[in-house]
Amino acid sequence: MAVVGMPKRWANRCRNGYYAARTAALEPRVAAVATVSGPFRLDWSVLPRPVRDIMTERAGGADAARAFARRVDLTDLAPRITAPLLVVDGGRDVIPGVTNGEPLARLAPHGTRLSVPHGDHLLGNARGDWLFPLADHVAHTLTGAAGRAAPDNAP
């Protein structure tokens, strides 16, 4: 996420992708935003036990983790994201109870989705397939410079 007048961070991964999208919807100084494997929505009742355990540990307890999961829903915020948005998802990143970024890219006014079919969670196995398009997205958005090429499956 690039914020005018603040330090720049290009992409936010996993739950930080949720925070990046939320911030972009609420902060008008955000000039560019990208998410990688970020959740659009969480459903605590369907999340696998290991995911719930990790969330419980990080949130400081099960009640806090459940409350966090209830808040993770970008349905109302996505249309408020005015900055150009790139959503990167891995096709093999399928976690029950986690809605991927497709609705975020579709509902955001300037949203684009890059789906990497063979990509796993955080797309560590496919960095070359998304890092350059993501860097090009940020560079083009902030400077107008032409990038390498648009994602093959961009809307």
Tell me what you see in this structure.
With 155 residues, the chain is an alpha/beta fold. It is 36% helix and 17% strand. It has five helices and seven strands, in the order ββαββααββαβα. The protein has helices at residues 15-26, 49-59, 62-71, 102-107, 127-143; strands spanning 2-3, 12-13, 30-36, 41-42, 85-90, 98-99, 111-116. Strands 1, 2, 3, 5 and 7 form a five-stranded mixed β-sheet that branches. A two-stranded antiparallel ribbon has the order 4-6. Helix 2 (49-59) packs across helix 3 (62-71). The longest helix has 17 residues, at 127-143. It is globular, with a radius of gyration of 15 Å. Residues 5-10 have low confidence and may be disordered.
Q: What's the topology here?
A:
Layout: E1 2-3, E2 12-13, H1 15-26, E3 30-36, E4 41-42, H2 49-59, H3 62-71, E5 85-90, E6 98-99, H4 102-107, E7 111-116, H5 127-143
Parallel strand pairs: 2-3, 3-5, 5-7
Antiparallel strand pairs: 1-3, 4-6
